[in-house]
Amino acid sequence: MESEMKDVSSKDQFLEPIEGSVKDDWPLLKSESNSDQSSSTTTESILELEKKYAAYVRNDVYGTMGRGELPLTEKLLLGFALVSIVPIRIVIGMNLLFFYYFICRFCTLFSIPNRDEGDDEEEEQEDYAHMVGWRRSIIVNSGRFLARVMLFNMGVYWISESYKELLAVDGPETESEELERPGAIISNHVSYLDILYHTYSFFPSFVAKRSVAELPLVGLISKCLGCVYVQRELKSSEQKGVSGVLTKRVLEAQKNRTAPMMMLFPEGTTSNGDYLLPFKSGAFLSKAPVLPVILRYPYQRFSPAWDSISGLRHVILLLCQFVNYIEVIRLPIYYPSDQEKDDPKLYAHNIRKLMACEGNLILSDIGLAEKRVYHSALNDFLQS
């Protein structure tokens, strides 16, 4: 196992698949110019982009940005779905959202939210995840049930879950630690469906944009989940405050079984599902054990991965797909060694290697900054 992970983590090893992962038959954006030379230049440019940013490339029938040229059979299937199942799914989905919102509103009436204060007044975190008793029980159980119903409504009729037992797990293995509760769930990030699955399975707290707390309906639901709010545009003090809140919440979940675990996506953004991006070490500052979970989305026509495509287009095309699949690999609780506790970067590095090996994922060294460059280039091609 150890030698396999070393092979996977080698930079030379994972750079090679990136260079060789581009296929000539991928649907590409076409230049609007009638010039063959211009069209050829655009195609070559996009091929170069896809080689460089392979972790964000869509390989499904719909192609780059979901705007590839579709075969006739796909167009017919798409048209039929748009007038049949899509309206039904939208109505059911909205009703489920409203229904859960009213459950959360009822259970939080006359309740004072928990507040975690950061280094600044603007960093204050507000949530209802620390309630106890029948109110919390209703919020959790109904939330898990409705999250599964929402997945069913989106075509996820079956979820394939497997539990892997490792031959050797890094870190100490004492009876007391085997019973120790993980403070956080660590998962790769592919789609917004990830959130629905984890809500159904664990009902954890997530990290969300600060603006989510102010959204109608979703804002209150996020507070009931106990979301930790961040603002990517701000740096330094804001980030330090959020890291402190995250660490506090992870340690609290580890020691208190009534507290929700933190759901962390250490990549910081989504990939196309075949790659694993670099992990941010902030998720491992608590030194607490974690539960690694790997998500895969097998597909034939449209990929549920949310990359290189607008949100509205992705939702519509996903709802047009009659069946969607989720495969889940749950690894054993990972107990960090003393060396990993002293070095969060090492802890993050080793968890990432393990997940890549067990999930058959390719390690990539690009992150959010490169993703923005890639998306910007694609938009420039679209507008040219």
From TrEMBL:
Residues 1-20 are annotated as: Disordered. This is Phospholipid/glycerol acyltransferase domain-containing protein. GO terms for molecular function: lysophosphatidylethanolamine acyltransferase activity; O-acyltransferase activity. Residues 1-14 have a biased composition (Basic and acidic residues). The lineage of its organism: Eukaryota, Viridiplantae, Streptophyta, Embryophyta, Tracheophyta. InterPro entries: LPCAT1-like, Plipid/glycerol_acylTrfase. It holds the Pfam family Acyltransferase. Residues 183-298 form the Phospholipid/glycerol acyltransferase domain. The chain crosses the membrane at residues 76-103. One of its GO terms (biological process) is phospholipid biosynthetic process. It comes from the Eukaryota. Pathway: Lipid metabolism. Keywords: Acyltransferase, Lipid biosynthesis, Lipid metabolism, Membrane, Phospholipid biosynthesis, Phospholipid metabolism, Transferase, Transmembrane, Transmembrane helix. The keyword Acyltransferase applies. SMART domains: PlsC. Belongs to the 1-acyl-sn-glycerol-3-phosphate acyltransferase family. GO terms for cellular component: endoplasmic reticulum; membrane. It is found in: Membrane.
